[in-house]
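re: ur question from yesterday

yeah so i grabbed the chain u mentioned. its 344 aa long if i counted rite. heres the sequnce exactly as i have it in my notes:
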Amino acid sequence: MANFFLCIVTATLLAAGAQAQEQESTPPEGTPSVADAARKGQKTMPPKHVITNDDIEPKREAADLADLGASEQEVRAEMEKNYSLSLTKVDMMRQITQMQAIAASGDAGMLTSFKRSALAGYGGVEFPGKKEWEQSLSVVVSRMVEEAGKGVTRLQAIVDQNQNVLAGHDHAASAQMRETWIAAVLPYATWQQRARNLVEDGKARAKAYATGNPTGVAQYHHEAVRRNEIAVGGMLSSMHIVEDELRNVQGHYACDATQWPRDPHDPEIPNVMWTNYIDTASGAGYRLDIHGCDARHYSAVAVPKVSDGSQGRAFCMDESGVVRVAPDGNPATCMSRGSEWNGR
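ran it thru and got these structure tokens back, copy pasting raw so excuse formatting
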């Protein structure tokens, strides 16, 4: 089965595929293949430079970044090396489906996916040149989506016109179909690789700024605190639903793991929901405490490691299901003077 270069797994849109075995095609006698021509014309490329905050130019145009690496010659050479010698109809239809999904996602959907991949954890870090980087990514993604739509039509035509080749064992005809297929995919694959290069570029620049510049460090910390607060607030909101279900079944709220129902087949294993709540709080740097559980009342408090608000605010909730937040991180003031949490 062919392993396609630069295929996107639709569920994640950015997951890396399994590495293909290196194989070379054997062209018909006396006829140089596109692969041979590409290899002869290909120059040795120096290692790509990862851009950091130290060498960011004051004004870097979007057009400059849009062509970051990945010439058609480079991409074709990789495709020649990594595509299987004999393409099957299953392989071909799979790639068509993948490109259809890219085209259907549209510019906005794909741009959002690529930005999330590049800036995961660094969305609030305003590294120098970020605006130009975003503009360049937008240009590249738009071209990628456009070529995906065009490519689907070209590829389906190749499948339709080569039914006899796909059903037979004519190696020369199969090799020619493979070259035609690569040429049809190439425009899309080139823009896709440029988008991936920009993703890696943005990721490196954001990380460099978040670790090597005081302003960037502060922005990264603020972003991390915000993410942790959202995780903890969401956890308490979902906990109230489970607590109400437990009260309806058991006649009282549950304050600890021993009061939560367990799997009768594995009674020694703590309830998985309880474990998830504890792990979520701990992973966000919080301690979760639940008190006063009886048939009518309970209270839950999630407290950060420090109470000055620098590591996040304190969150609390009772049987009303209303999640409240105390800006100073102090659980003592959360229920009495805390404001209702609105998800921010």
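noticed a couple things. The first strand starts at residue 286 and ends at 291. also Residues 219-340 form one domain.
anyway ttyl
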